[in-house]
Amino acid sequence: MTEDSLRPLVAEALGTLLLVATVVGSGIMAQRLFHGTDSSDGLVLLANTAATAAGLLALILCFAPISGSHFNPAVSLAAFWEGRLSRREASAFGLAQMVGALGGTLFAHLMFSAPLLQISHHARPEWPMLLSEFTATFALVVVIRGTRNQALAPFAVAGIIAAGYWFTPSTSFANPAVTLARAFTDSFTGIRPMDVPGFMAAQFLGALAATVLFRWMQPPEALPAVVSD
Amino acid sequence: MTEDSLRPLVAEALGTLLLVATVVGSGIMAQRLFHGTDSSDGLVLLANTAATAAGLLALILCFAPISGSHFNPAVSLAAFWEGRLSRREASAFGLAQMVGALGGTLFAHLMFSAPLLQISHHARPEWPMLLSEFTATFALVVVIRGTRNQALAPFAVAGIIAAGYWFTPSTSFANPAVTLARAFTDSFTGIRPMDVPGFMAAQFLGALAATVLFRWMQPPEALPAVVSD
Amino acid sequence: MTEDSLRPLVAEALGTLLLVATVVGSGIMAQRLFHGTDSSDGLVLLANTAATAAGLLALILCFAPISGSHFNPAVSLAAFWEGRLSRREASAFGLAQMVGALGGTLFAHLMFSAPLLQISHHARPEWPMLLSEFTATFALVVVIRGTRNQALAPFAVAGIIAAGYWFTPSTSFANPAVTLARAFTDSFTGIRPMDVPGFMAAQFLGALAATVLFRWMQPPEALPAVVSD
Amino acid sequence: MTEDSLRPLVAEALGTLLLVATVVGSGIMAQRLFHGTDSSDGLVLLANTAATAAGLLALILCFAPISGSHFNPAVSLAAFWEGRLSRREASAFGLAQMVGALGGTLFAHLMFSAPLLQISHHARPEWPMLLSEFTATFALVVVIRGTRNQALAPFAVAGIIAAGYWFTPSTSFANPAVTLARAFTDSFTGIRPMDVPGFMAAQFLGALAATVLFRWMQPPEALPAVVSD
């Protein structure tokens, strides 16, 4: 592996790490600050939404020139389906994202002096959650694939994730790497390990549906060359 | 109907569906999270505003290259008045938006395990509501028509809707398709069916007033060619 | 007066009207929704800030190609000092803004079924308020004058006003026309008439200080030609 | 020292002053408005985050053409390490930022009629705080260094700071000049003087780590010429 092929992987790992640290860390922070108060549940989600959207915007803008700022195996898989990543690249991206995501959870725990290794007890079981994750990931990939103004795409992605935190009952994980990593935190943003496989399957199906739709909506051959910033 | 003429209609239907799912879904989510708390009414509207603005920004950026991201029969009608859509195109857009909007309400109910078919009991009757909807739609069409920087227009639209949620007593529906769809949810964002016709009439009048004003303010012949992204 | 010279005045009047309706209306709405709750004062200001910033962004983007989107006599006066408006134009702008602002207050009252004519009893007397308004207007004019990227200037202006709502004890009126108009609403955003002249004087002085500073910081002859969108 | 070399220093001092006045002032305002309420801690941080992000966006857009809008000795030092500022320039920037930051604290106290000279008693001692400040500054410099779209860089910086207010237990000071200045306010955003040196050391180390990483990630010789707006 050359340095040139390593750089995007480091970017994906680091970007996903900082993203998960933001998601998990802001959940812990908000839980502590709003602990025991009347409007706690809603206010924690509001703070979590603001921090996630703001951080996501910054991280996508930052790493887009290096790796395209996927931070998400479902997005990299969709890029593979469309021929924009080779199988080998997509696999390496996915692995880097998983490692980064798990690192992000540990790092958030470390910063907040919480036990490093935790297993979530946050049950997210009902089938509407699966529909919800399918929809959230479908909407995310639709937005990524549809937005042609590359400079403003980071705003579109942050926007659809912020909206998803509220319009889906599962709060829009929409990311298999982030889902896995959130199984290892027993805080606001966690998910019980037994609910993870269903979430992941729903997410990949959502990405597939969006890809199939856009193959028809915007035939790739009609797209302009990719401009990364 | 050719595939090329079908694509914008699918974009309008899907975009409006996701928009209404965001509006209705985030209202349900916020109502559940803030249920019974002291500041409930205001905090639900705050969360609803944030989710709607973020989702609207993403969806407009996404579908603009395909259909222009109207998602709103009043906007399509204004485009017809200005000769930017044919009568036939505007009608098809309006129908696609209606179907998408109704689908969005059903879909939000499905995700949140609520009864699929509901009728709103949320009364919004007083005449100030009509003035309010006239104003909200007038302001929306003014902003769409006035903003020349097409790349930033999605921010302007999301901005005026977010403001309208708070500066109009009706919380700025400003969209006949969305208004109809919101008659079928008995949750925070619903509207009693008997109040729908008045809202719609006020919205179309608002769009008309904005169109007449801008015919004088910015004569169409002086406008640069439309650039969609 | 020709039609061409009337258009910018209508734009200034309408833009200021919608801006003041947003400021005053969102204050009334938030006051009603959060009435009697524990965190009322802060939450009303938070909602007021979000609505104002979102509306201001939309309105500036909308009217910039027609009038430059001043909506503010202090900004128009600064433009006169710099030779970008004639004395006659600046006076007409100021008059249009005053008329629009007063209309905005009346219109907000009309929409919210409140008494049309009100006089504020909201005392904002202490001298720190004057320092606060001097600073808020100084910062506003500095931001307008300093930001060279005209496309993003609306974000900068909305940003400094949103910040000013919180970092100044007067909540950053920063606009003589808006200040006058807010004397005529006895709601959250009002100001007692006897405090208006001091506010206005402080605002004009703040604009003057910013203009003098930037005459040295960025000599006008070094600026590129104005691009309005 | 010529006028041309003085202008960037005045820009850095004034920008940092307004930034710190925003951070400290909005903290005081929010503390007063939410005083004694149930959700006080979290809501104060939420308001503080919104005001800081909005103000930072405006100030960066404003002063970027004049000085590059560092407002932060760690950022100026990183620019020196990369050869974009001379040692002399970086030192002068750092000094201007320190003076501006201290002025910002005093100015916030003056506006809010608080005692001008205060010493913070807000303890922020544990070692996780140091890790937290290392991370916050690392992420800030990574985002500055990685974002190639100069026009949108202000959004990336405001985004990572807003996220940092919530994903780090120290609320992301990420700035040695601001840290020093916050030792002199005994309000929400203060820091006990004895905790300042550790914060500063962690911040400079974070900036160093980001610089070393990006020397490999994006070799400077491969970067396009700097475009300031």
Query: What series of H and E elements makes up the topology of chain A?
Result: HHHHHHHH
Query: Which range does the strand content of chain A fall in?
Result: under 5%
**CATH architecture assignment name of chain A:** Up-down Bundle
Radius of gyration of chain A (CA) equals 17 Å
pLDDT < 50 runs, ≥5 residues of chain A: 223-229
User: Helicity level of chain A, as a percent range?
Assistant: 55-70%
How would you concisely characterize the structure shown here?
With 229 residues, chain A is mainly α. The first copy, chain A, is built from eight helices and no strands. Chain A has helices at 3-33, 40-67, 73-81, 87-111, 127-146, 153-167, 176-182, 196-217.
Structure commentary:
The structure is a homotetramer of 229-residue chains. Chain A has 229 residues and is mainly α. Chain A has a single domain (3-219), classed as Up-down Bundle (Glycerol uptake facilitator protein), CATH 1.20.1080.10. Helices cover 69% and strands 0% of the residues of chain A. The first copy, chain A, is built from eight helices and no strands. Chain A has helices spanning 3-33, 40-67, 73-81, 87-111, 127-146, 153-167, 176-182, 196-217. In chain A, helix 1 (3-33) packs parallel to helix 4 (87-111) and helix 2 (40-67) packs antiparallel against helix 6. The longest helix of chain A is centred in the N-terminal third of the chain and has 31 residues, at 3-33. Mean pLDDT of chain A is 93; it is low at 223-229. At the A-B interface, helix 2, helix 5 and helix 6 of A face helix 1, helix 2 and helix 4 of B.
